[in-house]
Here is the input.
Amino acid sequence: MYNASLHHSIFITGGAMISVSVIDLGFMFVERINRADLQGLLDIMTDDHELWIFGEFEGRGKEQMERAWKGYFDLCPEYMIHICEIYEKDDTAVMFGRTTGSHLNLPRKKEFIDEPVIWTAKVRDGLVSEWALHLSNDETRVKFGIPVK
Here is the structure.
């Protein structure tokens, strides 16, 4: 599923340009979420970035995303994404894993064990144009080409 030949240029804070794959960019997005690095997230989003949560449209544009992520980081300062598997499908990094510290307020061990999620980071022109959360079930795994376990 991983195709190392699919690389995109991306501008990083400070003006330096590096070349990263779709999967690298997906990991970079998760890393910034895990550090609650709001500016870092905004730096790797397209201006028309969209957020989808379990099939529901949550917002578009950096201004909305800034408010949404700031609110979530304030509400859930210990929020962490733990990636177990990652795949590449066309222009999208498809990541399977779990979270801790979310708004669900579950005990850390229960949330990590019981609440698997699939995240997708769609990439356009070297930036993340869409971030989405999906239920982790066989139907979603098949949709994104993830092996069913």
Remarks:
- The first helix runs from residue 22 to 34.
- The helical segments are 22-34, 38-43, 62-75, 108-114, 138-143.
- The longest strand covers residues 80-89.
